[in-house]
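Worked example 3 (structure in, sequence out).
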């Protein structure tokens, strides 16, 4: 029964994010052909309204929190700034994939990339192992004492 609920929640999560990607694609293709300012912001307002509603479709706390942080929290602010040619989406990223990532995820384009400090590969291994342990604990939290 619990697996079926999680399967249903995962399907809803995927539908929500596919809807978000389609909406951001609309902003990329249509809004760039509209003059900057009020007209572009009017074309983006329905997407912003949709982003406030999308997290409410799920009942899983983790999916709601991730979606609520990324869509109404980040994407709306970035799209509103984009309507006036400001913020991290200006200048327009070169392709749609970058536009979607920069809009929906908490990443920022570096204008002048500095020399990157490369972490040793074992740190990545520790992060993956930690994530695996946390995921295992989350999936089996019904076995933990209250």
């Amino acid at each position: 029964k619990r697996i079926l609920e999680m399967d249903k929640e995962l399907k809803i999560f995927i539908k929500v994010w596919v809807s978000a990607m389609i909406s951001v694609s609309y902003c990329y293709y249509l809004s760039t052909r509209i003059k900057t300012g009020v007209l572009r912001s009017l074309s983006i307002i329905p997407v912003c309204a949709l982003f406030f509603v999308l997290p409410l479709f799920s009942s899983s706390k983790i999916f709601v929190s991730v979606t609520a942080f990324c869509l109404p929290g980040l994407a709306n602010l970035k799209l509103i700034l984009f309507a006036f040619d400001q913020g991290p989406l200006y200048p327009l990223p070169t392709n749609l994939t970058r536009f979607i990532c920069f809009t929906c995820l908490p990443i920022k384009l570096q204008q002048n990339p500095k020399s990157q400090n490369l972490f040793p590969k074992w740190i990545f291994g520790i992060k993956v192992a930690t994530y695996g342990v946390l995921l295992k604990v989350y999936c089996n939290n019904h076995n933990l004492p209250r």
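Notes: The chain is about 65% helix and 0% strand. The mean pLDDT is 86.
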